[in-house]
Amino acid sequence: MNNNHFNSSSSLASGSSPNTYPMTLEQKTAFTFVAILFIFLGLLIVRCFRILLDPYSSMPSSTWADGLDGLEKGTFEYALA
């Protein structure tokens, strides 16, 4: 009786079960695409948490008025005229 039990479990472990189907090319492609999406989602979550923890490190140190030549801040209306 032990011998029959051993034979049935060894046949399942070897992969000869009729319920195991090989993955088709479409399934492999979909699985790869979903895995890439999960990796991208993980990177976005990490980036968002880094911005939430230290929001000022991601901001540039210059302001919008640094690029104006010879104009003071607040005199933008005169530059248009």
Automatic annotation (TrEMBL):
Coiled coil location: none
GO CC annotation: membrane
Domain of life (superkingdom): Eukaryota
Protein localization: Membrane
UniProt KW keywords: Membrane, Transmembrane, Transmembrane helix
Listed InterPro entries: Cortexin (IPR020066)
Main location: membrane
Transmembrane segments: 30-49
Membrane topology of the entry: Single-pass membrane protein
Record PANTHER family: CORTEXIN-1-RELATED, CORTEXIN-2
UniProt-recorded name of the protein: Cortexin-2-like protein
